[in-house]
Design a protein that fits this description.
Blueprint (H helix, E strand, L loop, with lengths): L18 H13 L10 H24 L1
């Protein structure tokens, strides 16, 4: 099929692919959490920050208990 399956064509997603890792790295550089799933929305970044804080608190508790 010269136009793609069932006549479908790419609608401009191709140029976005190189920017996705750059945005993920910018988030990591800014706030210190690694985002590995799209979308990189503010609520998801916030949840990732909360999860990181919880992991760090748990790690500190274990170190203090030893």
């Amino acid at each position: 099929d010269p136009e793609g399956p069932y006549g479908a064509k790419e609608a401009g997603e191709g140029p976005l692919h190189p920017s996705i890792p750059a945005i993920a790295n910018a988030i990591y550089d800014a706030v210190g959490v690694r985002m590995d799933a799209l979308p990189f929305s503010p609520p998801r970044v916030w949840r990732a920050l909360q999860a990181k804080a919880a992991r760090e608190a748990e790690r500190e508790e274990r170190v203090a208990a030893d």
